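Form 7-S
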Amino acid sequence: LDVHGNQYALLTASKCFKQSMVLNCSSCHNVHQKESNSLEVFAQRCMNCHNDDSHNFCIVKNIDKQTLINKCIDCHMPLQKSNQIIFKTGNEKKPLYELIRTHLIRVYKQ
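Output:
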């Protein structure tokens, strides 16, 4: 699936979705507020399930805990190029791909 094509299908393929009884679009997105670039807001919503008490908190040894909390989305929902949104200009030899945050939540290799 393309990162732009079907975000709900990507979400439902995620381990978070499969193990949760309540995860859906509104678990993270508030349709009444503009939050699209508020990564820390979304990261705090991840912490509703992923915290020290629930024993499913990310443990990367060389990154401090507060950075893990504030930036979890950058690792587990990274920006990926869309093959559906491509820009071609006269000056560029290579096409430019739009970067969109994936909704396939998982551990990605760095």
